[in-house]
Design a protein that fits this description.
The complex is a heterodimer of chains A (258) and B (516). Chain A has 258 residues and is an alpha/beta fold. Chain A contains eleven helices and seven strands. In chain B, 56% of the residues lie in helices and 13% in strands. A nine-stranded antiparallel beta sheet of chain B has the order 5-4-3-2-6-7-8-1-9. The chains are: A alpha/beta (258), B alpha+beta (516).
Amino acid sequence: MKTIALYSSKGGVGKTAAAVNLSYLAAQSGYKTLICDLDSQGSATYYFRIKPRLKKKAQGFSQAGRPIERSIKATDYAHLDLLPADFTHRNLDIAFLEAKQPTEQLRRILAPLSAEYDLIFLDCPPTFNILAENIFQAADMLLVPLIPTTLSVRTYVQLRAFLQQNGYDTEAVTTFFSLVDGRKKMHRELATAVYRQFDHVCKTPIPYRSQIEKMGLYRAPVSVFAPHSVAAQAYQSLWQEIQGALETRLEKQATSQN
Amino acid sequence: MLTQSTDFHLPDDIEPTEIIAGITAVVPTIPEASQSITLCYYDTFDWRLYRNALVLTGQHNEYSLRELDTAVTIAQEICQTPPVFADDFPAGALRERVAPILGVRALLEMACAEVTRTTYPLLNEDEKTVARLVVEEIRPSPDTTPLITLHLHSLRGYDQEAQTISQRLRDAGLSPGAETDIYRQIMAAAGKTPGGYTPKPPVPLTPEMRADEAAKQILRAQLKVIRSNEPYIAQDIDTEFLHDFRVAIRRTRSALTQIKGVFPADITARFKQDLATVGKMTNQLRDLDVYLLDEARYRALLPENLAADIGPLFAYLQQKRTAVLADVVAHLHGPQYRQIMADWEAFLNEPAPKNPTAPHAARPIIQVARKRIFKRYRQIVAEGREILENTEDHLLHALRIDCKKLRYLLEFFTPLFPPEEIAYLIKQLKQLQTNLGDFNDLCVQEDYLLHVADELPLADQQSRHTLMAIGGLVAILHQERLRVKAEFAQTFAAFTAPANSQLFEELFASGKRKGA
């Protein structure tokens, strides 16, 4: 099982749209996939037409030890399940802080799912506190959407510095451009600079497109209601890059284990 | 991840459209376009899945394992290339379940059917799919009328919704049921009998049957096994076609030798000779199969840094096997083999003579069976005791052969005795046979590895490493062999325990106990 976290400390950068579309494409490629909606706003849950409530008895994240498996819901798509958002997520930070090893709670909670799923996507809320550290611990790949603006790039540089200082593997960080407007000169220039400066930057940018906004209307991944759209093609090509990177890592792991 | 599915039988007087209309009047749906697919059923040649009440189907690259009687889906898997052996499935629940059942056997396509499938996603107020109703029309062959079933697939986290719909279907007069009937009909349409082949076909003997008649029945059953496997050896699908073929030849020879005095002596002598020739021509191929099947085990025995160096040995054995297989296939298609088998078959199909000349031909089979089994048992006890005094390798080999003979006798004559007790004795004997068999295998392997080192055609440097690896294996196998040998005394004592001797005595010597 590999865990991919769609993470950014900023809101509105396209995390949820990416998590929904990439998890759908992963499932279509045959990976048994789970998308966890960690955001209390429950947008990913809404896109899959699922009601945002965890079962009362299984408030897995806030009550350690209780199985979260029982809250998992099938989506309408083969090989793709969802762990719905819950309003108790607002208290996740507090719950984690009270635990013995506060930064390892999420990883522990997800561990039992490894028998069932090949891939877990985490749709993360914009946060930079104890929940964020839980996400860093749990994720095999930290997938960061980046709007090509000066401020976004600055936040990204801060994130990398934080990870490095705190002993996290910066190799796990992969970034891709999100909400890109190809007509803006600044977007183009910044993108070029980022490609030059950082490793693990995906070649495929996700453009700013109204099709992506229409996900709220159709309540489905873009590839379902507009399979031939520019947006659907961009996610498809981004998924292929990510899949390639995952397979390379799995191979590396296999050879280092032998 | 898995969706649970309940299957419903459709009574003849209900149309599927009526049912769908009834459900969708209450639960909204937007039906998906009907799909036509070819659904194939897989099993091993000896029906291992069927015998374990499992059904494996495949459509495109999707494979699904279900329980035969309940149609409950156990696991689903996607395979990009059609799986042949258990290892060809990706790691997961499906492979875990079938691997111990399939063993080294290959999956064969047993039957295929054309399926037209229409899916009705059942939606809630958010237009979220909460269950799926699937109408399947299955045509086992183009000219048969389609069999119609209704499947209700529940989705994880929406069990209650599925239960409500399931209840509605029941109320409409449908009964949840197994797909056993469909499985059987599809197999029948393909001309297949599930469970039809077994390497140990049951022979319905009765105690009073004439000995020569009974012997012919036993031998005809073996001939059927030989004939069933013969055509597949050339196709090289898995190693067990040859193995079953060889075992049936060996059983045939054993029966000819052991069920004494039931056929004219010259006939027995001739076929013993002929069938020995047939057996011999496949010896080398089976040996190579055994080494190649054990490759992973050999690698695991070696220290990590030598494990890779054993590679050239297996490459060589594989290459050699290709040539040896070609020889065996040529023999099987050759005039000598065909003549032998034709004559043997003709002899077995001759009616038994009214006034047989062979001394035991007209005796009841139960008498012959008792005498032969008990005599063999006593011989084994005597041989074993001698080994306890003097553990020589050749004596262990001789004992192994005699145990095999006793095993075959017990199996041939099982229907004549109380089934549970025979099964118990076979189990006891099996433990002794395992010890002796392991010892023999280790001796043969050790010898073979020493000998094969001379044959390896290798470049110098590489060959030195490979020879080291072989040397390492020989040493490990030798240690193992000593360990197995040391276990003989204990295993033999268990087999000849007073309770077992008494049972042999009662069943086969004194006749105190009645037959089955």
